[in-house]
Amino acid sequence: MANLTDRVPDDTEIDAMTTPRGSKSTESLQHKRQIKRRLEDFLEQAQLRKAIGDDDFF
User: Fold this and answer.
1) Least CB-packed of 16, 30, 43, 56 within 10 Å?
2) What is the pTM of this model?
């Protein structure tokens, strides 16, 4: 019977997986991060409005 264990990658492996290899990859990664940041800001504002009671937003 095989013994399977979960292995956590170390920092160098994580860097290798997340570092883009080309200029298009770099641009794509930056664009995705900008979109994610804008969505998080939007959701945070929506939660604040909901908490305040300004439900006209939805």
Assistant:
1) 56
2) 0.54
CA distances from 36 to 29, 30, 39, 52 (A): 11, 10, 5, 24
Using an 8 Å Cβ cutoff, are 45 and 37 in contact?
no
**Cβ proximity of 20 and 29 under 8 Å:** yes
Give per-residue pLDDT as tens, 9-52: 778 877 777 777 788 888 888 898 899 999 999 999 999 988 88
Burial 10-47 (b: 16+ CB within 10 A, else e): eeeeeeeeeeeeeeeeeeeeeeeeeeeeeeeeeeeeee
The tokens for 47 are 């939660």
**What gap in Å lies between CA 37 and CA 50, rounded to an integer?**
20
